[in-house]
């Protein structure tokens, strides 16, 4: 009954997503989310949820308690903080000129082969200072937070040499330590083959130089990387090179979470299932066998509706994946080629273009996205013991978060991380500090 950090009381709808400690939701479970009407919740001083339940029960249970902050959620909905399972947010130099090229009919690989795409960004990122990269990265994370994201996967991958990859990972580490947002960091040194190297030479460099250095920096406590990523694609890293890099990353304790089957069918899904990958992203060209293998291996499919939309690719087979028992997650794929900060817009696109239901999309952007990052034990749902990462929307129905395409700026009243309000809409008054 003592002192607590936060009380959210009288929410019209409290969307738990999960209520039985599920690691993920798939098949029918993803279509029937746990929800409490007229409910309240308490977050403790440690940033974790202490109690969830009907408003009158919570009021009685905590009648003698004190709170650093109380928010009346009458007429509003409370949801778990959104989880963005795939982003490339550390880079310099935008590619707005390439958007015009794409609109004129140039394909992704045509731009890439002409020296644009990843290589254009690599050139600018190598020149940028660590301080410059940190400030633009911080601004991007703040925009993601305002759109409701409280846990974000962040990749390196615009260095393609050890020096710049480490510079990017240091920037991500700095944000982990200094910002109120969850970050899962990913080493993506195999994002493209560096100019002047073959894929085999690049693979050898990563295995012999990059990964040993990451292991050393992890042991010294300087950089903590969570995942390893490879762009497994025709003309980039083939299946054999991908296998070698992913296995080497796994051997030093990194989770496998990589790009696969995007532009060409590469049997990436089959490889990921074989290697015990936690997640594979894109999958526009995944095979039927790959879908079956991923479902069996409990390997999450991180689908990226913005990429298929912006590159005019065929949509990933979300419905087939859901029906076959694949754990479907969502990500924004924020990068210079797909400039989207907003998981509410990603969920909307997933529903309209990939034929997901709103409940399936919310599960994919919360508990399943957290699972894809190996973090669903503490993130992705509103349950006792989990981290108090929450969003409050100014609506009596939670579906408005997806229904209002591009409307999240006016809809989201509060974004909360570990029970601390990190964003408050202007109409709710000025931010109050603890």
UniProtKB/TrEMBL annotation:
Keyword Zinc attached: yes
Residue ranges constituting the Amidohydrolase-related domain according to the UniProt record: 78-421
One cellular component term from this protein's GO annotations in UniProt: cytoplasm
Alphabetized UniProt keyword annotations: Histidine metabolism, Hydrolase, Iron, Metal-binding, Zinc
EC numbers: 3.5.2.7
One Pfam family here: Amidohydro_1
Pathway(s) of this molecule: Amino-acid degradation; L-histidine degradation into L-glutamate; N-formimidoyl-L-glutamate from L-histidine: step 3/3
GO molecular function: imidazolonepropionase activity; metal ion binding
GO BP: any one term: L-histidine catabolic process to glutamate and formamide
Major enzyme class: hydrolase
Cofactor(s) essential for the protein: Fe(3+)
UniProt keyword Lipid metabolism present: no
The reaction(s) this protein catalyses: 4-imidazolone-5-propanoate + H2O = N-formimidoyl-L-glutamate
NCBIfam families referenced in this protein's UniProt entry, alphabetically: hutI
Family as reported in the entry's similarity comment: Belongs to the metallo-dependent hydrolases superfamily. HutI family.
Name by which UniProt lists this protein: Probable imidazolonepropionase
Organism (species): Chionis minor (Black-faced sheathbill)
The encoding gene: Amdhd1
């Amino acid at each position: 009954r003592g002192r607590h950090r936060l009380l959210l009381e009288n929410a019209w709808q409290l969307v738990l997503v999960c209520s039985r400690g599920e690691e993920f939701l798939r098949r029918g479970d993803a279509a029937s989310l746990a929800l409490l009407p007229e409910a309240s919740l308490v977050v403790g001083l440690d940033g974790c949820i202490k109690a969830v339940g009907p408003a009158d029960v919570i009021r009685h249970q905590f009648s003698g308690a004190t709170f650093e902050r109380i928010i009346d959620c009458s007429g509003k909905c409370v949801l778990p903080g959104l989880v963005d399972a795939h982003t490339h947010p550390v880079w310099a130099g935008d590619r707005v000129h390439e958007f015009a090229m794409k609109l004129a009919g140039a394909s992704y690989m045509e731009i890439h082969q002409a020296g644009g795409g990843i290589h254009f960004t690599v050139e600018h990122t190598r020149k940028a200072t660590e301080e410059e990269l940190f400030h633009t990265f911080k601004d991007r994370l703040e925009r993601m937070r305002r759109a409701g994201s409280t846990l974000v996967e962040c990749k390196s991958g615009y260095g393609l040499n050890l020096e710049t990859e480490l510079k990017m990972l240091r920037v991500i580490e700095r944000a982990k330590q200094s910002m109120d947002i969850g970050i899962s960091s990913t080493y993506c040194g195999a994002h493209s083959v560096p100019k002047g190297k073959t894929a085999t030479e690049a693979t050898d460099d990563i295995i012999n130089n990059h990964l040993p250095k990451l292991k050393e920096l992890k042991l010294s406590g300087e950089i903590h990387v969570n995942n390893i990523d490879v762009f497994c694609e025709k003309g980039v890293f083939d299946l054999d090179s991908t296998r070698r890099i992913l296995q080497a990353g796994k051997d030093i304790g990194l989770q496998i979470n990589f790009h696969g089957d995007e532009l060409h069918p590469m049997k990436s899904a089959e490889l990921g299932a074989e290697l015990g990958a936690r997640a594979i992203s894109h999958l526009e060209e995944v095979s039927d066998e790959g879908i079956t293998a991923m479902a069996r291996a409990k390997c999450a499919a991180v689908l990226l509706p913005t990429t298929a939309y912006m590159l005019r690719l065929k949509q990933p087979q979300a419905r087939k994946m859901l029906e076959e028992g694949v754990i479907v997650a969502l990500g924004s794929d924020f990068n210079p080629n797909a400039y989207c900060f907003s998981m509410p817009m990603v969920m909307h696109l997933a529903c309209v273009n990939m034929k997901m239901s709103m409940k399936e999309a919310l599960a994919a952007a919360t508990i399943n996205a957290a699972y894809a990052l190996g973090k669903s034990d503490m993130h992705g749902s509103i349950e006792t013991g989990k981290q108090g990462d929450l969003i409050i929307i100014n609506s009596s129905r939670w579906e408005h978060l997806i229904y209002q395409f591009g409307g999240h700026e006016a809809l989201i009243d509060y974004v909360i991380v570990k029970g601390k309000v990190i964003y408050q809409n202007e109409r709710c008054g000025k931010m109050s500090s603890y």
